[in-house]
Design goal:
Structural class: mainly alpha
Number of helices: 5
Number of strands: 0
Oligomer: single chain
Number of domains: 1
Radius of gyration: 18 Å
């Protein structure tokens, strides 16, 4: 009779270590200032800093950053293979969709806000942080290989 060992705890621990390393290169103040620059022009009657909107933007930018960092392990010759590009686009679209839906719920009262403009801002914000995560992950890879 064999023993069954679950590898899930080991996978989770490895994932946490990877995320922790990635987050060492992230400045939350930079995320906040980027969000303010991107979204303040879209929401004309809304003060951005220290609001629930800022919190949602930071949370989803972090999620996007970590997603990009995780895809960095698949980069070959400075490019992401097509299969992973498709998967990454789906992941980015899901994160952007979540932020857009969140914003859309309360922005209905702002007559100066156009949904198309807001969608473009959300997409560019999430893609920006995903690419930053990918770049950070790629930049950290040589350091990781030296430790093995």
């Amino acid at each position: 009779m064999g023993i069954v060992i679950s590898l899930e705890p080991h996978r989770i621990k490895k994932e946490w270590k990877e995320e922790k390393r990635l987050l060492q290169d992230l400045d939350v103040q930079e995320v906040k200032s980027t969000a303010e620059k991107v979204f303040t022009p879209v929401f004309h009657r809304f003060q951005f800093p220290y609001t629930f909107l800022e919190e949602a933007c930071v949370d989803l930018a972090l999620e996007s950053f970590l997603s990009g960092g995780k895809y960095s392990r698949y980069v070959e010759g400075r490019a992401l293979p097509f299969t992973f590009q498709v998967q990454a686009a789906a992941a980015v679209g899901e994160i952007a969709g979540e932020l857009y839906e969140f914003m859309q719920c309360w922005v209905e009262d702002d007559p100066g806000c156009y949904l198309k403009e807001m969608k473009e801002a959300v997409d560019s914000f999430i893609v920006y942080w995903w690419k930053r995560g990918l770049e950070t992950g790629v930049r950290r890879q040589p350091l990781d290989y030296r430790k093995r």
